[in-house]
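Supplementary Methods. Inverse-folding protocol.

Structures were first reduced to a discrete structure-token string of length 168. This string, shown here, constituted the complete conditioning input.
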């Protein structure tokens, strides 16, 4: 089992590295690059589904911090596989309750899943676009409480968060 877990940890970080390398394709104007990105994230989503079937949520205790973050990234990018995102959300929520996963990552995955379902997000982590040079979040359930809710899960205020991606 220990060998399986070590191999799983390596597989997850390799998947995240491949994801990072081709992530430019997500917003590319080139349909071929978009297709490469979609194929990659779909393949990774399918594999994460198998991993969750076999091991449950890959926590930091199980696979290490970097590999656990890789699993979360793969779930985040499984945008066209809502079943995978919903399952990851459910398992990750249980892991957070047990103290073996972070509420910050869970909040990002929750918002991403809500937006993919066509619903309002909670924490304002998902950006819809840019207006007058400023990032605009997808609609939020309680926009006036957004920063308060973000603080509860360890996410910096919206203005600080978007300043990292300063738009030219």
């Amino acid at each position: 089992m220990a060998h399986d877990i070590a191999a799983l940890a390596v597989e997850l970080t390799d998947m995240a590295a491949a994801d990072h390398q081709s992530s430019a394709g997500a917003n590319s104007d080139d349909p071929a690059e978009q297709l490469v990105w979609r194929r990659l994230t779909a393949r990774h989503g399918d594999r994460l589904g198998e991993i969750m079937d076999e091991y449950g949520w890959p926590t930091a205790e199980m696979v290490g911090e970097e590999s656990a973050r890789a699993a979360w990234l793969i779930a985040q990018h499984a945008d066209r596989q809502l079943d995978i995102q919903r399952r990851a959300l459910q398992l990750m929520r249980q892991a957070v309750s047990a103290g073996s996963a972070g509420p910050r990552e869970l909040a990002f995955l929750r918002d991403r899943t809500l937006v993919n379902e066509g619903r309002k997000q909670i924490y304002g982590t998902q950006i819809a676009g840019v207006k007058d040079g400023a990032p605009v979040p997808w609609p939020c359930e309680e926009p006036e409480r957004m920063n308060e809710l973000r603080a509860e899960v360890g996410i910096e205020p919206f203005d600080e968060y978007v300043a990292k991606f300063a738009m030219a």
